Amino acid sequence: MMRAVVLCEPGGPKNLVLTELPMPQPRPGWVRIAIRAFGLNRSELHTRLGLSQGVTFPRVLGIEAVGVVDACPDGSVPLGQQVATMLGGMGRVFDGGYAEYVVVPCSQVIQFQSNLPWDVLGAVPETLQTAYGSLSVGLDLQAGQSLLIRGGTSALGLAAATLAKEIGATVIATTRQMDRINALLAHGVDYAIVDQGEINVEVRKIFPRGVDAALELVGTPTLSDTLRATRVHGTVCFTGMLSNQWTVKDFYPIDYIPRGVRLTSYAGGASDLPAAVLQKYLEQVAANMSTLGPIHTYSLDEIPRAHADMEHNRVFGKIVGVIKS
């Protein structure tokens, strides 16, 4: 048997119940991971609230995890190997990372080697994958360009800022809370703006023509304003939905998208995070060359509180569930 946090039906944080389940058994082509830590993500909040399509209940949530391989029928991944896994149906189509063990396809594990604590390792995979893909695929960000991060104090926003600065971009990041401005600046962003719903005027005081690139993490309520903060031939990448609002009502592109501004999106999976990129990032973190931002840890029996903290934005940075420190 193993311990796992199960969501029997959509609802509040109390619907996440710690229970015991049979140990999952991997079939050929799959691998079992003894989980050491797992990041919590807004998409799991969406699932708990009943906003995600195609999810059946009861379900163990969790779209990512890190740990060590403890069973692999076809021998394609060595036993004891440190791995990360994410997405590919985790926590939606099949049980995910809010547990002591998870079974996933071998194709969605990423091998790595690190002596970092497990809570730190648990904060990395999905956040890094999304930040890396958003900047490289979504925005094709280049050295010398300016980047606006809408939702800068989220774990994804902080990771994107770190990667963008390493590329050589100038970064503007937003927060809705004045007391987090200094935290953003300490993280390395060049400009921090308090977001009260419209920021395009403030952005253009810094970059009169508008920014070269913008990463939209808040969602559709701020997307129109983010587009207006972007220069002609600049690009806005829609990646996050911190607001829980996914669609634009009565979308008329010619009226909604400013002339000459490009709108794209990004979503990826384990195959979109090269093992070499993950390994390099972990080594940079270990050498204090890269920073993850704040990490907030919770045990399995504290996951309902972690969800409440995430839902009500009580903390900024990455929330991580820890099985073993």
TrEMBL record:
Q: Which domain of life does this protein belong to?
A: Bacteria
Domain Enoyl reductase (ER), chain residue ranges per copy: 11-321
Q: Which UniProt keywords apply?
A: NADP, Oxidoreductase
Instruction: Enumerate the Gene3D superfamilies for this protein.
Output: Medium-chain alcohol dehydrogenases, catalytic domain, NAD(P)-binding Rossmann-like Domain
Q: Does the keyword Oxidoreductase apply?
A: yes
Give a yes or no for keyword Oxidoreductase in this entry.
Answer: yes
Which SMART domains does the record cross-reference, listed alphabetically? Answer: PKS_ER
Q: Which GO terms describe its molecular function?
A: NADPH binding; oxidoreductase activity, acting on NAD(P)H
The protein in question is named NADPH:quinone reductase and related Zn-dependent oxidoreductase
Q: Which organism is it from?
A: Solimicrobium silvestre
